[in-house]
Amino acid sequence: MIKFMIKKNYYIYHIPNQKIGMTCNLNKRVEHEQGYKKDEYEVLFSSRDVDKAALMERKLQKFYGYKIDRQLYTNLIKIKSMKVNPTEQTSTFDCERKDLLQVLNQNEKFKWKTSLGEFEINEETKKWLVANAKPSMYNNDRCFIYNKAYYEAFLSKPTYSKVEIFDLIRSWADERGIYDKGDPKTQLIKLYEETGELAKALLEDDKDGIIDAIGDSIVVLTNLSKLVGYDVESCIQSAYDEISNRTGRMIDGTFVKDTL
Questions:
Q1: Are 41 and 30 in contact (CB under 8 A)?
Q2: How far is CA 39 from CA 15, 42, 50, 107, 201, in A?
Q3: Structural contact between residues 20 and 44, judged by C-beta atoms closer than 8 angstroms
Q4: Do the beta carbons of residue 55 and residue 80 sit within 8 Å?
Q5: Spatial separation of the C-alpha atoms in residues 153 and 147, rounded to whole Å
Q6: How far apart are CA 81 and CA 244, in angstroms?
């Protein structure tokens, strides 16, 4: 039986002339579920203390003249931690199916080991877990998933070599007309956007965001290279040939090359 709990950051968000609400996932709650873009809402307050954030939500609702929630956010969260019991065939969660999403949101990035490998709670798997969880036949307060189904959905995906992945990116871009109608300048702007997302993810220690931003930046660089008549592999090789024999030392966390 594995117990887990990850402390979340709780945000009080404001959609002007609409509402003030609270969430631990702005991207999912405000942007994906409610359809608002980043420039259409603002964050008024954030805290890792859920009780403090819940009280601030009410104060801000009153200050801005919105309807005050009848229940504190903390009262809506029935389960703050849970247990997962992995067996040969299933992983059982110590909560009702209707409460599973709340629990998963609070325990994002947690991993547990099964006979088919290590399973993880993240943005991609949460939707699948909720959709495929089944009520326990023996205990109404529990739900479970079949480990093999999770494995087939996420862990049995094909992997590609370093060479193949760049070819796949170029094929994807070519099919969408990026090389026929694209512009290197627009790709450069996209690169600025992606590196901005990377900076934000680093500052917030958002591991999934870091992975997404680095991957997206590499996709943009692959397409930019193609649009200016090169391939990204040659650019990487050229850079490595230049640095391979370079000497220097680390100063304040940065490698500083030796000067002649």
A1: yes
A2: 10, 7, 25, 28, 18
A3: yes
A4: no
A5: 10
A6: 49
CA quadruple 201, 205, 207, 208: dihedral, nearest 10: -40
- b/e for 111-130, b at 16 or more Cβ within 10 A? eeebebeebbbeeebbeebe
Tokens standing for residue 184: 């290197």
DSSP for 156-185, please give it.
S-----HHHHHHHHHHHHHHTTHHHH--HH
Ordered per-residue pLDDT tens for the chain, 260 residues: 444 444 578 999 999 999 999 998 899 889 988 899 999 999 999 998 888 888 899 999 999 999 887 666 655 554 445 689 999 999 999 888 988 998 898 888 889 999 899 999 998 899 999 999 999 988 888 999 999 999 988 888 666 666 688 999 999 999 999 999 999 999 999 999 999 999 999 999 988 889 999 999 999 999 999 999 999 999 999 998 888 888 888 887 777 777 76
The residue behind tokens 């326990």 is 136
Identify each DSSP E strand in 129-227 by its residue range: 134-135, 143-146
Domain ranges of the chain: 7-76, 82-155, 162-254
Q: Please give the CATH number for the structural domain made up of 162-254.
A: 1.10.287.1080
